[in-house]
Amino acid sequence: MPTFTYTARAINGDLKSATIEAPSRDDVIKQLRQLKLNVVKIDEGTANRKKRGGSIKMRDIVIFTRQFSTMINAGLPLVQALDILANQSENPALKDVTRQVMFDVESGNTVADALRKHPKAFSDLYVNMVAAGEAGGILDTILMRLAVFMEKNDALIRKVKGAMIYPGVIMSVAAIAITVLLVFVIPTFENMFNSAGIGQIGAVEDLSADLLRRQFEINVVGAHELTRLVLPAMRANNEGRIVQCSSVLGLVAAPYRGVYCASKYAIEALSDALRLELRGTGIAVSIIEPGPIRSRFVETALANFKKTVDIESSPHRSLYRARLLAMEAGGKRAFKLEPEAVAAKLVHAVESRHPRARYFVTTPTYFSAVAKRVLPTALLDRIVVWT
């Protein structure tokens, strides 16, 4: 049976302290009242003291404050009001705190002093407001105002927490996705196919430095940075395949495609250099030269051209108008193949034990590769302009 230490005041005013065994604190109070003793303080024995679990939420304090204010306004004594609140509380932690406050008030402390002993339940603002209410004789009014203030504060906190749920979920999902990529996906990277690219059309003199920079950022820098990020994982595995998608215009330059050709020439040079640097590592670098393939490339290039080039102010405007009509009709259809032709070369580059350095897909790419090597520059220029 638990042991309790009590301090009580006799009828003649003398204080008496002793130890008593009882099933609960309430039984101790009943026994002391039967002995005509006024309870000042009751402490449960240290060996038998049980800690109440749980925390005291703001909503519990709001309900406590509003009910306390109503009881005081109705004329109930402080001790009786606190006793009722302790009995009615559903929160075990708040029940204990309320009982301790009741005993302190019964022993002669002010409500503010009794509350101040429990900083985890009652804030400094709360305690100071109660002290002001006791001093001014308007404790019930102060408690009601505190209840209203705390209800509004609690509602605001709930709204803020509710508003943070969606961003929190998004950030959590993003963090999980990044973790999965870094832990499970990137370390097992064996193959990579770079096919980023936009086609900037226009005469070299009509294209600004910003357009040149944009073309290289997308077609060259983006692919280069991705390759750098993947290479450490491939080196760790001692194998890998890097396949870069170039163009027939990476073999032979064409008029009004200068900026696009420059980006593809850069891809070719970077890939060739990387292939030589990775010799003996188990990582192969290949280039696919597609040539004319049925896709939306012409459509997107045309839209980009109209947006970025001032056609009417250009000395090439007459030729632009003629080429626009041809491009809007779908461009040249000769030698065009379906995308599956590129896929077949890609599969070989990825699965072959000895992938080639270059894969030519369409007839123009085969012809351009040969012509670049054997034809004089003047003759090659005529053929390019004519085609």
Uncertain runs: 46-51
Question: Structural class of the secondary structure composition?
Answer: alpha/beta
Q: Which second-level CATH architecture of the largest domain applies?
A: 3-Layer(aba) Sandwich
Arithmetic mean of pLDDT: 86
The N- and C-terminal alpha carbons lie at a distance of: 105 Å
Broad shape = elongated
Determine the fraction of residues in helical runs and give it as a percent range. Answer: 55-70%
What is the number of domains?
3
Strand content: 5-15%
Query: What is the highest CATH level, the class of the largest domain?
Result: Alpha Beta
CATH homologous superfamily caption of the largest domain: NAD(P)-binding Rossmann-like Domain
Order of helices and strands: EEHEHHHHHHEHEHEHHHEHH
Structural description of this entry:
By secondary structure, the chain is of the alpha/beta class. It has 3 domains: 1-50, Ubiquitin-like (UB roll); 56-187, Type II secretion system (T2SS), domain F (Receptor-associated Protein); 189-386, Rossmann fold, CATH 3.40.50.720. The chain has 14 helices and 7 strands. It has helices spanning 25-34, 58-73, 78-88, 92-106, 111-116, 124-136, 139-185, 209-237, 258-277, 297-308, 317-328, 340-351, 363-374, 377-386, and strands spanning 3-9, 15-21, 38-44, 191-194, 240-245, 283-289, 358-360. The chain has a 4-stranded parallel sheet with strand order 4-5-6-7, sandwiched between helices. The chain has a 3-stranded antiparallel sheet with strand order 2-1-3. Helix 3 (78-88) runs antiparallel to helix 4 and helix 8 (209-237) packs parallel to helix 9 (258-277). The longest helix is centred in the middle third of the chain and has 47 residues, at 139-185. It is elongated, with a radius of gyration of 42 Å. 26% of the residues are buried.
